[in-house]
Write a structure and sequence with these properties.
Length: 348
Amino acid sequence: MDIRQLDPREKSALIISFILYLLIVMFLSASSDTQIWKVAIGTSPIILHWIVFFFFVVPRNVKAWMFWGLPILFPAAFFIIWSSGSLPIISQMDGAMLTAMNIFIIYIINVPILFFFVRKIKTKIIIKEEPRQENDLEKDHYKQLAENYFHENQQYADQVQTLSKDAQDKELYKQMAHDYSTRNKQYLEQITTLQAKMQKISITQENFSLTLRSIEDKCKGINFVVGRVYSNKKGGSPNLRQKLTVNRDLYNSFSELTATAEMDKEKADKLLIILLKIQRQLEILERPEWEIITLQRNPLIALKRDSEGKDIILEVLEKNDKDPIVDYYAEAKEVCIKLIEYLKRTYE
């Protein structure tokens, strides 16, 4: 076996063993005043044991009995050669003492080193290289297939869920667009009808007071709807309602100004100011909620409205009350415009 094929731990064990062997030889040579080459021959079972172990046993997987059996093999061979007297250089040595010393050195020094550096690694290699049963391989194959199918199915399920949600959102937006379109058409029809009706009205001095009182009725109707929709239990407040309602002092002043039959420039100017204020107040209902008001959080009764206040105030009033608020608003605004035009044309 080529030494380069040993793994790092086995190379470390080989180097440490060789160094220990050289130290033992030099120590015995110095302490016994014996030539070093004779000491090397006497301790040759140690180096032979390491050579066989590292280059022939380790590559073929270490067995437990090899740790305890091999250390006796070469010292025993050394003892047999010494006893037979076949080699004079060995026969002159104290064979029994050297055999016992070699066995002692291998067991006491060599075996722990080899056990620490080699056995653990070869045990792992044995486990790793243990042949797998065909059934286990087939089992792993189907297990991997099952995992692959699971992940693919999970991806498909996520895609289906996403597409389902997109489809639901699409249907929701489509329905919202249809509702808005329908409601806008209704508004346009109502406004067109009312405009046609108002165009038929010809403001004269005789019907001026009666026409003026019609604004008062529509403003009262608007105020009632605002009070019901934006009540305290629905998130409203007195200050909020004050921003949306028409000040009653404005339309109550109509009676005082029209008490006498005569209409002069001074009265016309006062009425013109009042009508312009009412017109501006009515126009507030055409703006989005978020520009004008802020509802209280967590009301007892939730309104039908956009949570961010993007709905027009007039739409919120219509969706949350049964009175024809759009008719009230359109008629009041149209009459205001007609009366303002009449006053400007007649008294300016």
